[in-house]
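Lab manual, section 2.4: Encoding a predicted structure.

Procedure: take the sequence of the chain (787 residues), apply the prediction step described in section 2.3, and record the output as structure tokens. A sample record is shown.
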Amino acid sequence: MIGQSVKRVEDFRFLTGQACYTRDVQIPGTAPLQALFLRSPYPAARITRILTEQAARVPGVVAVLTAAALPGHLRPIPLIRKPPTSHHALPVIPLLADQVVRYQGEPIACVVATTEAVAQDALELIQVEYEPLPAVGQIDAAIGSDAPLVHPDLETNIAFSATLRNGPVDDAFGKAAVVVRQRMHNNRVVPHPLEPRSVLASYDRETRQLTVWFSTQRPHHTRWFLSQILDYPENLIRVIMPDVGGAFGCKEPIYPDEVLVCLASMLLQRPVRWTESRSEHFLSTTHGRDQLADLELAADADGRLLGLRGTVWLNIGAYLYPNTSGVVLARTLPLLPGAYDIPAFDVTAHGVFTNTVPTGPYRGAGRPEAIYFIERLIDILASKLNIDPAEIRRRNFLELSPEKPTRTITGLSYDSGNFRQILDTALELSSYREHRLRQRNGDSEERLIGIGIAAYVELGGATPSTAAALEGSPPLWESATVTADPTGSIVVRVGTAGHGQGHETTFAQIAASVLGIPLSSIRVEFGDTATAPFGFGTFGTRSMTVGGSAVYLACQQLLQHAIKLAAEMLEANSSDVVYDRGYFYVRGLEDRSVSFQEVCHAAYFSLVPFRAGLQPGLQVTATYDPPNYTFATGVHVAVVAIDRHTGQLDVLSYVGVDDCGRAINPMIVEGQLHGGIAQGIGQALFEHARYSRDGILMNPSLLDYALPRSTHLPTFETHLIEFPSLSNPLGVKGIGEGGAIVGPVAITNAVHDALRCFGITHLNMPHTPEQLWRVIGRGEAGERREE
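Recorded output:
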């Protein structure tokens, strides 16, 4: 079954409307109360007075919570990654703002009522008096010497800093024949899963159990967070993750409003429900990207790279969320060399506070930014030396070995692959030379043709114990429990939690392959802390590499257990028993056999396990801690056409060649690539959460924030080349974020290729028709200016 494009078994319930999301969950015999939040309209202000009496008197209102009404035993949201900082302590994230608000959308009060309509009426009666304070909404404004301080006690907006340095950097730049330097902004985006964040909490005063249905990526970690913040025993908290309508990283953190819903249920001893509106999503859910880089790349006269140095800033928003620092420190910095052999490296990263919604992981989480920065620099260098973009990449690619990892200048160990082979395949499949000829001959007088190439590396499998200390993270292992029932059917329970990736299919394929039984005999379960083994969740391209490997090992161990039982039944030595497609037989005596179902029955209903010295039943739990990350790689080629008169851009073709190691289900891999590329094109051409310099979100709704539609996208051509990973028993590398990592810069490089005739070095994303129209107009008028 491994390597087969099996149709996803979970899709039937999604396509027929039978999926159950958090909003769909019903508690028999009771109607949950509804929570709504009052949020700050100001990016920075002092709360001088808040009056809730009128709201509390509205019929149907059960409670109005403010910071003053919260119990004193609550703890702050804990950091799971502790960044390097000189500050004695970083500011804690309040559950409700007390005295000062620090971003537009910060929760101030929570109304709990019998219906949403009643809660909304009550919200409008809460009176809050504000004293506006100076605010800062952009990185370059926040790092200025006269910038308003988001947290005055820190005396700076720099939350943390770290430098990664290796090799003779000064010597490299001293002897360089050419140095290119560019300031680049990786634009801020809003995640926008189809299902917004949603919570249903139910506290049982008799058992003291808090049960929470949660649209999350990390059920077990969410339970731990709730235990820590609420100061409540973890064994009295149960987190259930129903079907999840997408996440992309924004459902990885724990949020103040989500904790408040749980607290409200405990205080009121009644179920409480909350689902964020789309408007709230803009103002309260973590945004992604928003990194600013000022980098220099040194090379010799032939274009061979000598060194990379500079600075990267991450806008972390008003508060540092539990895992935000890892985005830049554990992902962007180490991955900046990308696919290239760079002998010297010296880059410093800073986390910067601003009066904006906190940022966090978003599909790729630091890797799209790193690849964007290095791939733009490579293209700028190629242009300056007048070398074909494909050729300059070929000259500088790292040589990867199929047998042992290749260490990069930043300390990563790429496991296997062949960048040059992938590049050559991509150039051939995309008809690169034909497009170049067409471009030189002039496609037409009406439009400009651009061809963009981008290579990427996708660091996956977060986080091996060997790298945990470097990341400031706990080791993120995974576990799986495989149970065979007496009839021979299998239940696979995993700690990773799927939200659209196809886990129910791919984990079942692994089990079916190892156990030699039909896919229909296997059920995969996850998402309930009461039944699933402990796991850290789904993020960081880790579910298949870490969780899938745990499933593989558990199935292998269960099979070994079954072989011992079969040997007892066949009156043979275990070493002589062979298993093939559902049957155990004695080597050389194929007529002596027992079926998998017969062995499972014997494990429960006979003396066989006792005679074999084994525990009765068939259940195994295995844990997997990878020795290294995995590194999927690829090269994507995009061809665009820009209308000279309107700036309208069309993506004419998009070809990707990717190495994800061993593909468990190639169809699902291609689906992941398609989704990621679509999001990457969205960032390149449409999306940007625009904050004013003083912290006002200028496009806080889908009326103003543009998302890509199917009509904006070409038919993607994706091709897989498999170089098995050396870091796990399955040989998989993970590809869930690859398209979002490479897509933006493949499109951006194509845009700049189209505009080369105007001498434009760099334009920041998104490349809207207005931006391109203005640049073309200035270029034709003989002006040159970067944006």
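Check your result against the sample. The longest helix spans residues 543-570.
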